[in-house]
Design a protein that fits this description.
Elements: E1 6-7, H1 9-14, E2 24-27, E3 30-33, E4 44-45, E5 48-49, E6 73-77
Parallel strand pairs: 1-6
Antiparallel strand pairs: 2-3, 3-6, 4-5
Length: about 80
């Protein structure tokens, strides 16, 4: 059984395609490595930026969440206290 690594929003933000070699995005609590995608060159995909949670932005995208199945999941986004 493998342990899923949990990352904070700050750790995710560093994987923006510029500060570190990885290019990561989060969607519905999962973090995906999109580093190999030419669509995420320099950490930007149209008006979206890597290193962020894109959950609220996907509703306006021309594709569905199925697109994330193409990329490896590297961890989970740390849940923030929402009271």
């Amino acid at each position: 059984m493998s342990v899923v690594k949990v990352y904070s929003k700050q750790q995710l933000a560093l994987r923006n395609g510029q500060d570190m070699p990885e290019t990561w995005v989060a969607f519905r609590g999962c973090i995906y490595d999109v580093s190999t995608s030419p669509m995420w060159k320099n950490g930007q995909h149209y008006e979206h930026w890597a290193g962020q949670d894109l959950t609220s932005e996907l509703e306006n995208a021309p594709h569905t969440e199925e697109v994330f199945k193409r990329f490896p999941q590297v961890g989970k986004l740390e849940a923030t206290g929402m009271h």
